[in-house]
């Protein structure tokens, strides 16, 4: 949508293909209670921003659908809804895009299908006993869909901690398997942590300034939740309400889940990284005018290490009735008949300029900036991509 | 009861007696094994082992043992000793082999020779941080025993199986363990 708006501004003729209705993945592929991680005041698209009464609140899924749909209408985006793309292949003049309603030829293509098309499951999911029901964030919906009884949530990113908390509140015993994770407080020195990310410039850090880009692009989403109370949802909160924390799920053998004994170090790493980020914020504050309106410096309690964490869990004795895999997502490029996807399923691109002439991508992790996958990150990326695309079109025209 | 004519050099009676005693004294069964490692230079370190705790008090080996660990020259190291992961293989092979001897003695099987070859497969893209989907440790460990003994093939296989069942190192490698690392 953001890219479409930038193309329109430059009078570049284009269409937007949507397999469902505008904001389809928000309509169909999110759990019921999800809210945006970014506060409303940060919700913006090119020439369009949140103007409601609750700038510090977080949009529900329905509100995000309405927000994006309203933007599409206002921008008069040339959307073709209910048009599933079945293939994109290179042809002499550019690309042929096959859809269920016929083929389209175009000189350039912007891939905006996102990074979260399919839920990624570790290989050991095949060894889970059939008596245990398995869910992904895409088909989870709400706790009522789970069978009664204990639940193992695997993964402690934003998705994992949110679902663990919600399932716990539904009255089920929850065990949360914790691997590498990113700990963040919701509020720091009285401000939303994403205000800090934005103001201090961390979010604007460009992809070509990041030392280990591969790692930055693979980073799990931070342990954040958008709630009206602006609450922090870290592992201390979860263990305090009774969620049992165990180490990373290493394997499933003979119907038993085996968890890493390295939980303590995962906590230490996340605490150290959070403190380094807060140091960055504090350093930035000191470099600003004295009247920057923030509270006093604070540090948070280190993640509490359980006296003893279980290393194995019998999945056959009825204690665990379901598993929710919050183990990340992968993009789906099965329809992309252009050799630009590496052996691990990632698109080969340089800041959204894909490794094939006239092919672009938007909305992937740290595409051009750390904020690339947040709603407010779309605008800057879209402008850069459309700049490049416009030059590309002009260059081609010049050559002819 | 050990068959008297069989001698693998393992005092099974002493082990069985200890088992009886420790049944009634679980505290005495709690052992702490220790090693002290000192960085030398580069990837070279020296680990010394003598004292340990068990049977309710401080104990020690007859002498202090010292182990050099390093990496081979293809890792741009000076190769003062075997790599830490190779020490894991030492531990596994010697633990299983000791187990085979003890179980054979207990079952009245005379051993003539026991040889174990251990191979551990590792993709070093893990430790080099090339691909975070690749684990750091061994992806596969294979132990091959060649045993000459007064026993059928089945009985020898049962020996090896029982040895794995009671092996501390086999357990450490195949099951997760809580590890606490502190800086003082």
A few lines on this structure:
The complex is a heterodimer of chains A (400) and B (184). Helices cover 28% and strands 20% of the residues of chain A.
Would you give an account of this structure?
The complex is a heterodimer of chains A (400) and B (184). In chain A, strand 6 and strand 7 form a beta hairpin. The two termini of chain A are 31 Å apart. In chain A, the strands form 9 sheets. In chain A, strands 10-19-11-12-15 form a 5-stranded parallel sheet. In chain A, strands 5-6-7 form a 3-stranded antiparallel sheet, with no helix packed on it. A 3-stranded antiparallel sheet of chain A has the order 16-17-18, with no helix packed on it. The mean pLDDT of chain A is 94. Chain A has 2 domains: 2-117 and 331-399, FAD/NAD(P)-binding domain, CATH 3.50.50; 119-325, FAD/NAD(P)-binding domain. Chain A is α/β, with parallel strands linked by helices. Chain A is built from 10 helices and 23 strands. With 184 residues, chain B is α+β, with helices and mostly antiparallel strands. Chain B has a domain at 83-175: K homology (KH) domain (GMP Synthetase, Chain A, domain 3). In chain B, 30% of the residues lie in helices and 29% in strands. In chain B, strands 1, 2, 3 and 4 form a 4-stranded antiparallel sheet that branches. In chain B, strands 5-6 form a two-stranded antiparallel sheet. The radius of gyration of chain B is 19 Å and the shape is globular. Chain B starts with 11 loop residues before the first helix and ends in a 10-residue tail after the last helix. In chain B, 14% of the residues are buried. The interface between A and B is medium-sized, with 17 and 9 residues.
